[in-house]
Structure formats: structure tokens, C-alpha cells
Amino acid sequence: MKIRKCERCKRYTLREKCRCGLITVSPHPPKFSPEDRWGEWRRKAKKLVENRTIR
Fold first, then answer.
1. Which residues are bridge partners to 18 per DSSP?
2. Residue 47 and which of 24, 38, 39, 41 are 20 to 30 A apart at CA?
3. DSSP letter string over 8-38?
């Protein structure tokens, strides 16, 4: 079992689903690798998603 976090209500839990009904996610960042072949693409995709939610 690993700790998980609900994105909606910001609660931490060990369950796959939060009390509010949303599926929980891992609060830990992915492991860093300097040899990450897809890092540049992932950062560009993240910026696009962030720009869409701001507008």
C-alpha cells in the first residue's frame, strides 16, 4: 500500500477512491533521469494543458 491523494478535496488516503468519489493519484513526482528521451515533449504538453485551463 502507498499513500495516495485526491485531486478534488486534497485529502490523503490509502484507498483507490476518495470519500468524494474521485479516483486518487500518487502524490509523488516521477523519478528523474537525465537520459529521459520524452522529457522535452512532456514539458511542452504540460505547458499547453496549463495554458488551456487559465483561459
1. none
2. 24
3. TT--EESSSB-TTSPBPB--SPPPP-TT-TT
pTM: 0.54
Would you state the cell numbers that stand for residue 31, as one nine-digit string?
523519478
**Could you tell me if residue 8 is left (phi over 0), alpha (psi between -120 and 50 degrees) or otherwise beta?**
alpha
Q: How confident is the model at residue 54 (pLDDT cuts 50, 70, 90)?
A: low
- CA-to-CA distance for 38 and 43, rounded, in angstroms? 9
- The DSSP element (H or E) to which 4 belongs, if any, is strand 4-5
pLDDT (tens digit per residue) in 25-47: 999 887 878 888 888 898 899 89
